[in-house]
Amino acid sequence: MAVSEVQADLGRCCGDRMEPIVIGKKEVGLSFELMEDIARAEEVLRLKIEAPGAPMATVSCASGNADRALMLAQASGAWVENMEGAAACAAARRVGAAFLEIRGISNWAGEGDISTWRLEPAAERLGRVLNSLLGR
What we know:
Blueprint: E1 2-7, E2 12-14, E3 17-19, E4 21-23, E5 26-28, E6 31-33, H1 35-45, E7 54-58, H2 66-76, E8 80-82, H3 85-94, H4 119-133
Parallel strand pairs: 1-7, 7-8
Antiparallel strand pairs: 1-6, 2-3, 4-5
């Protein structure tokens, strides 16, 4: 479950580092804290969401190797890399809706060998969490 979401590669790619975009003296970024959203969802659902929480980073291009994944993790503070969380959160914020992001994690960012990914166990874990939220 996302406890925060950030657009991690919004900036200039400079080899082994990212430089933020600055307009005037203000850094352009897109980040969201989600603890209030989680509390709101728990209140509406009338239950405690039993899922580990982590900061997540949305990227426009998935990391193709461990070096890029590490650089983005260090720059953003995120533990999980995805490709849509920040945009979905921005859309929810725009209409005043709470945002709850729950994911099944199958692999390490930058891990290119798909045969090592654990898709089925990740989907099963995600299914169990969703079933508990839906009261099944």
